[in-house]
Amino acid sequence: MESLAGRAYLVTGGGTGIGAATARRLAALGASVTVVGRRGEPLDAVVADVERQGGHALAHPADVRDPAAVEAAADAALARFGRLDGLVNNAAGNFVAPAERLSANGWRAVVDIVLNGTWNCTSAVARRMIEAGTPGAIVSVIATYAWTGHPGTVHSAAAKAGVVAMTRTLAVEWARYGIRLNCVAPGPTETEGAGAALWADDADRERVLASVPLNRFASAPEVGDLVGLLLSDRAGYVTGSILTADGGQSLGTQIYGPPIADAAAPTASAQ
Ligand SMILES: CCCCCCCCC/C=C/C(=O)SCCNC(=O)CCNC(=O)[C@H](O)C(C)(C)COP(=O)(O)OP(=O)(O)OC[C@H]1O[C@@H](n2cnc3c(N)ncnc32)[C@H](O)[C@@H]1OP(=O)(O)O
Ligand SMILES: NC(=O)C1=CN([C@@H]2O[C@H](COP(=O)(O)OP(=O)(O)OC[C@H]3O[C@@H](n4cnc5c(N)ncnc54)[C@H](OP(=O)(O)O)[C@@H]3O)[C@@H](O)[C@H]2O)C=CC1
């Protein structure tokens, strides 16, 4: 993988799951990372981990829904590392709820974190890169239901679709500054947060697994790898794109042949 040595990135939701794996990956590639989330403890643990490996990281607790807190996080990253080369919009909130029972507050909580939070961070980091005259890259972690839709997740699906529109709009608008914006759309990924929110019992877990042609969950580090790839110069001509890594889930399940659960192939395992 291409080195990110000397670069500095801000990763939201960087204390757990995909965000933590991404922060570790970027640090292993030589980048300095500022991890942002509401709880300080998981952020501190990631920083300690990165520093044990000889990397550089900073924990900055903040709620991405609060524009002033996000501005302060971007300032802290700049003050500590002297530059900002990009951002990973990974923070999210989610739960499964039938749309007719979703309260105004439930809708607002998820849309505020996923869509408004992504805007707050994107705007704060990009304005600083534009001001410094340095190019950079922004990757947002979305989900395939941004374009397929998915019953029970109307708040998250609508918000993630908004992030796709934001990404495509700004990819064109900020190309003149050398800022690339892309999305990664993982399929079901083994994390505590998603497990609790989306497949809390064995039956749901089995149902989700049966919908994935590759017949396994993604791992957080393999999603982090893809984020690293899109941030790197290897992806220097890629902007406004979505990299889907969902084991084929969004293509739909087969009609003919044996059930997916009977057809797990050795090539389908994580590297
Ligand atoms: C499926 C496809 C698979 C297959 C496809 C796989 C692709 C998956 C793609 C995406 C995966 C993810 O995003 S996984 C990320 C999961 N991680 C997380 O969710 C971690 C962060 N979560 C959170 O912070 C919370 O869960 C969240 C509710 C979102 C925000 O917390 P807040 O403290 O801001 O808000 P709260 O005050 O607690 O709640 C706000 C309102 O939401 C309501 N609310 C909260 N949980 C609720 C629930 N389970 N059901 C109904 N309503 C709920 C509350 O009652 C409140 O409304 P009132 O009572 O009316 O006031
Ligand atoms: N796991 C999966 O199957 C899939 C996940 N995704 C996406 O991947 C991303 C990561 O999810 P995953 O790692 O699974 O789940 P996690 O629950 O581990 O990650 C969510 C992170 O966001 C942070 N966060 C939540 N709300 C806020 C907020 N208001 N301000 C700042 N930080 C916040 C949380 O930290 P804290 O609570 O401390 O604030 C947490 O670190 C999300 O965007 C999700 O939608 C997409 C497809 C599939």
Automatic annotation (TrEMBL):
Q: Does the keyword NADP apply?
A: yes
What's a Gene Ontology MF term here? Answer: trans-2-enoyl-CoA reductase (NADPH) activity
| One protein family per Pfam | adh_short_C2
Pathway info: Lipid metabolism
Q: Which reaction does this chain catalyze?
A: (2E)-tetradecenoyl-CoA + NADPH + H(+) = tetradecanoyl-CoA + NADP(+); (2E)-dodecenoyl-CoA + NADPH + H(+) = dodecanoyl-CoA + NADP(+); (2E)-hexenoyl-CoA + NADPH + H(+) = hexanoyl-CoA + NADP(+); (2E)-octenoyl-CoA + NADPH + H(+) = octanoyl-CoA + NADP(+)
Cite the EC number.
1.3.1.38
Q: Where in the cell is it found?
A: Peroxisome
Q: Could you mention a single GO BP entry for this protein? A: fatty acid biosynthetic process
Q: What is its main location?
A: other
**Domain of life from the UniProt record:** Bacteria
Q: Which UniProt keywords apply?
A: Fatty acid biosynthesis, Fatty acid metabolism, Lipid biosynthesis, Lipid metabolism, NADP, Oxidoreductase, Peroxisome, Phosphoprotein
Class of the enzyme per the UniProt entry, highest EC level: oxidoreductase
Query: What is the recorded function of this protein according to its Swiss-Prot or TrEMBL entry?
Result: Participates in chain elongation of fatty acids. Catalyzes the reduction of trans-2-enoyl-CoAs of varying chain lengths from 6:1 to 16:1, having maximum activity with 10:1 CoA. Has no 2,4-dienoyl-CoA reductase activity.
Q: What PANTHER family does the annotation carry?
A: PEROXISOMAL TRANS-2-ENOYL-COA REDUCTASE
Q: How does it assemble?
A: Interacts with PEX5, probably required to target it into peroxisomes.
This chain belongs to the protein called Peroxisomal trans-2-enoyl-CoA reductase
Annotated source species? Actinomadura decatromicini
